[in-house]
Write a structure and sequence with these properties.
two-stranded parallel sheet; 8 strands; 4-stranded parallel beta sheet; alpha/beta; Rossmann fold; single chain
Length: 305
Amino acid sequence: MRTLLETGRTVAGIDIKKSPFTHTVGSIMDRQFVKDAMAGIDAVIHTATLHKPHVATHTRQEFIDTNITGTLNLLEEAAAAGVRAFLFTSTTSVFGRALIPLDGEPAAWINEEVVPAPKNIYGVTKAAAEDLCELFHRKFGLPCLILRTSRFFPEQDDRREIRESYEDGNVKVNEFLYRRVDIEDVVTAHLLALEKADAIGFGRYIISATTPFTRDDLRELRVNAPRVVSRRAPRYEEVYASRKWTMFPGIDRVYVNHRARIELGWRPKYDFARVIDLLGSGRDPRSPLARAVGSKGYHARAVVN
């Protein structure tokens, strides 16, 4: 919303809460509200969702109501209104169990050919919403592109053992190797998808920072990540040592953004090498947009896991 408004586009922001970027307050579960909001709309960017952190605080029915029924409402009204492009912001969490290799296996190479295997209600409902998008493209010709984003939020890791073992900044920089993306790059991916949706028609894309790893690294990466990272990004050792940071001992999956770079023409700016260079020169490794947006604020009050 910030970027679209800055570019001078006519934008209608809907949300369940008031904000400087919300033009109309309402829920995507309200069909009449969605119908009214769709009037005169040329393209839809659908980011409304219950997220993974809500699994601890919301019922499975609430996930279905928001993530599936809400998506269906948007799709049906978008198709009826003749919208030219529908973007669905999905998640790499749809891959679920496919992200965790068995003992003794190499790290998983996660591209769009990997079959999702959701492991919680969040992943199940996002995968179902993706399938609804595909259905509406096939049945009604609605151009739908799905962007499966990796981690970009600033909140601390949801695993207690990680929070207790590593500084938060250390965790996030480690993740740029395989499972994190800067929000500025997420935005540019969406803008490119808006331009190309009509020509592409339908597609799923992993939106994550470009990894320095190759398939040849996967077996060693699972058991000795520091050695592989030293080979691929040797400057990291000096920067980490100055901060008393450590690399994870092993990495179990690698998100691959090749299709998004080829088909969308996406060129993410923030990868592990860029972040290391910024840290090494004493600068903030986050983009200006990431610093401006700050915390998502998933819950109205603190929730401790």
